[in-house]
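Researcher: Before we compare anything, I want clean individual predictions. No alignment, no superposition, just each chain on its own. First chain goes here; please echo the sequence and then give the structure tokens.
Model: Echoing the first chain and its structure:
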Amino acid sequence: MKHYGGMYYPDGEEHMIEWLKKNGAAVNGRVIYQWRKQTAVHAACKQFRTAVDIGAHVGTWSVNMASRFGRVLAFEPVAAHRECFVLNVTAENVELFPVACGAGAKLVSITRDPHNSGASHVGGAGDIEMIALDSLGLSDVDLIKMDVEGYEANVIAGARETILRCRPIICAEQKRDFAVKFGLKPTAATDALRALGMRLIQEIGGDFIFGW
């Protein structure tokens, strides 16, 4: 495990730490990843009941969600990431789920880059549980953040009922052709959100903030 800027990262991590050295923001004694994006997303929220962090990694978003929302539900399938998460995010209103999110229930593998833990993504069949967010029957979600390296449209498919019921702000990553490796269009995530009646509020560096 590595420690930088008040946060723990998996052994071998290089990419994110180098990014933080150049672009990180100092917030409350920590060097924070994607602070500009986080600030814009929180500014778009009208209520702060439940936030959902899909692709929670080591807690770079959850650590700040915890101080703003009544509760945070974080989903992270990689054990090495969760080991860092529980050290980084100690707030009692955060619940960490050791599963991936997708269109439905199945078992998957996660492909990992040893030097860039943020590039981890769903692989083929495996032994890691995947669920649909809809299976939880949530009723008070005000924010969903998803960063799953191209798998976002599948996450949206499994969260359709939750999204329509709760009408949350959604921040979805959609970069270059990440989705193509899953047989999806490069714009599959934003297309799916627009099909649900959502509108684009802002795009920041490949992350798209949608509202109603």
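Researcher: Okay. Second chain, same rules.
Model: Second chain and its structure:
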Amino acid sequence: MRILVTNDDGIHGKGFESLVWALSGLGEVYVVLPDRQRSTTSHSLTLDKPLRIQKLEEKKFLVNGTPSDCVRLGILGLMKEDVELVVAGINNGPNLGDDVNYSGTVGAALEGTLLEVPSFAISLVVTGGYHFEVAANFARFLAERIIQQGLPKNVYLNVNIPDLPLEGIRGVEITRQGKRIYGKKIQERTDPRGEKYYWIAGENLSGISEQGTDVAAIEHNKISITPLSLDRTDYGMVEALKKWNLSWKKAFSGELT
């Protein structure tokens, strides 16, 4: 089989080499990475400049774009669509709860799914142990299961691994997306010329530990697997909106111009 690996940490990311090593036993692995750190780029594609590919070695490339660019170029260009699995990671840090809305790693898995290739994102919730080998071995295990079982066309997986040795992990839990709490401060600074500039930053992130969520699973030293869908429709709200009496033409009685 042919597998595409990418990340959002770029060529200096600590996890992708372990991932490639683990997956290489399953088939032919192509690596297409951003040429620099691209965290929090979400599912963005680059449309305002040309994309350039730098070949580092056989089946290993750098792209001056986002993780989603890497997936699209890999599948439609370098690998000519003959791809059976996309794996994004191993991210150096968590992608829990609301993080999925910002994560370039999760965005890459989303792009693979849009291109109808089974995909998952995998992240190590780094706490100082840097057990990337544990995450890599689980990635191979999960890849084998996906090959055997398949995934629905509109579904991709978000996987988070506790930063523990194998014996410290208490199992695997299928979870729902939890809730993260972000700092709400903007850091304002002044450069040597007296001009103001800003960092979007804040306190360390935390999360609400609610049973059944990815946040709670990690707190209990379990691997979290959260199935995500391309369909973001809130079906309950569809029914609620139908009751809002949104007949705007009648409401404005022709006053709009």
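Researcher: What stands out in the second chain?
Model: The radius of gyration is 21 Å. Additionally, Residues 20 and 29 are 7 Å apart (CA to CA).
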